[in-house]
Amino acid sequence: MKRCIECKQVKSENEFSLNGVRCAQHRLRSRCSLCEQTKRDKVDIFIQKARDTRRRHAERLDIATAVLEAKYGWTLERLVHDAKHHWENGCVDCGIAFQKMPGMGLSELTLDITNPREPPYYGINTRWICNGCNRRKGRKSPDRYGAELQARHRRKPRLTEPDPQLLLAPDPHDWISTFQSTADDESGDLFGKD
User: What single DSSP character describes residue 103?
Assistant: First the structure.
């Protein structure tokens, strides 16, 4: 039997996780498994995601985290707000909702530096996209990736209905064919002569 330091209840030892320490005296954690889970549930996962994202980008760019925040606008509040927004609304490139992606949950949400040759100003040269789109983009220039993205959108139907505001500049021929097929379905003739 062991007492949990959090809930103060005496519980059996099988309700405590192993500590990972080889010392036999401290082989069990001081909090019971239920209290540990409750503590993990209270942590906002988006705050942790934002902190980790900012730290990893600072390391890759060889910039101090404080400089990335002060000079380039990578504040924790902005990162958390935008990460939540994009998580709820889906990837801006492929239009797929993050919750429907076959992956590891929040790890599918990544922050892309749009043009790696330019300074990483947050909100100007960055955007939240899915892991798959970020891998496809790689270090391509925005022009090259934009052209590939447009070609992919014309060629492949989306898995979910996209938000019209998230679409990039559509192919004008798609609008014409949509208009003509709608008009043909409704009147049988584009000009109403039947």
Answer: S
Contact 127, 82 (CB under 8 A): no
The whole-number average pLDDT for the span 82-94 is 92
Q: Which residues contact 16 (CB under 8 A, 6 or more apart)?
A: 2, 4, 28, 29, 31, 32, 33
Q: pTM of the prediction?
A: 0.60
Torsion over CA: 100, 104, 109, 114 (sign): negative
Model pLDDT, residue 72: 97
Instruction: Write the DSSP assignment of 22-42 as a string of letters.
Output: S-GGG-EEEEEHHHHHHHHHH
Beta carbons of 72 and 120 less than 8 angstroms apart: yes
Fold (CATH) for 45-167: Herpes Virus-1 (3.30.40)
- Where, residue-wise, is CATH 3.30.40 in the chain? 45-167
C-beta atoms surrounding 65 within 10 Å: 14
